[in-house]
């Protein structure tokens, strides 16, 4: 636990680097670190999240904004270890409109791909009707999420009905028609798929080159880890 410790942005970056070297840590509590847990700090964490053993991450009471939520969503889309995510009282985020709502669309898109998260806590983070509709759209494509907390920011009856569905056992719908997803969510999924395809194609092109891959400066494991967080 490193909650409310005054950790800086540079400290978060070094911590992210260390997480990849020590893969025995399962719980990381960074709540209350307003200086370090910012969009830039979350970018560093998100870059290494897939190479850690973390099962629980607490970023509550911090300065994470829409960009940070987006970085986190991109990491969650491929993460296979995290089960609990706490994002309580994020003062710079409201999932209502503009960048805030778009970042929530990214988070919902991540739920389509993620198969390990069981609990998300968004207490005191404002959600409006459209955000609830995003959740309703992706819920049939995710069977692991069993707890979603919003608390005082709940938009009322619609959210309560959604929560009753989350708590009930449900069978995942395979081959869900993309056309039935909200455009904002479909756009994120399409972008991630395109990026993954392009990366795979680039890898094939390099290995298939008659002249072989170009010589590059040899990188140590530490160099590679730091590069991932830039």
UniProtKB/TrEMBL annotation:
Keywords: GTPase activation, Leucine-rich repeat, Repeat. Residues 219-230 have a biased composition (Basic and acidic residues). It comes from the Eukaryota. Residues 210-230 are annotated as: Disordered. GO terms for cellular component: cytosol; nucleus; perinuclear region of cytoplasm. One of its GO terms (molecular function) is small GTPase binding. This is Uncharacterized protein. GO terms for biological process: nucleocytoplasmic transport.
């Amino acid at each position: 636990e490193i909650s409310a410790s005054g950790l800086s942005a540079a400290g978060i970056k070094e911590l992210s680097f260390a997480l990849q070297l020590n893969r025995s840590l399962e719980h990381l509590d960074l709540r209350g670190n307003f200086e370090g847990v910012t969009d830039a700090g979350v970018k560093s964490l998100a870059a290494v999240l897939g190479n850690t053993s973390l099962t629980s991450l607490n970023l509550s009471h911090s300065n994470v904004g829409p960009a940070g939520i987006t970085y986190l969503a991109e990491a969650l889309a491929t993460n296979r270890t995290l089960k609990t995510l706490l994002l309580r009282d994020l003062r710079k985020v409201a999932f209502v409109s503009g960048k805030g709502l778009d970042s929530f669309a990214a988070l919902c898109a991540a739920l389509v791909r993620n198969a390990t998260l069981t609990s998300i806590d968004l207490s005191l983070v404002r959600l409006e009707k459209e955000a609830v509709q995003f959740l309703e759209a992706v819920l049939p494509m995710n069977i692991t999420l069993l707890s979603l907390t919003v608390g005082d920011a709940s938009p009322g009856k619609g959210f309560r009905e959604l929560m009753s569905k989350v708590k009930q056992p449900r069978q995942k719908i395979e081959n869900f028609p993309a056309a039935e997803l909200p455009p904002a969510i479909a756009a994120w999924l399409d972008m991630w798929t395109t990026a993954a395809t392009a990366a795979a194609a680039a890898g094939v092109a390099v290995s298939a080159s008659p002249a072989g891959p170009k010589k590059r400066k040899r990188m140590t494991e530490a160099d590679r880890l730091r590069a991932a967080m830039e």
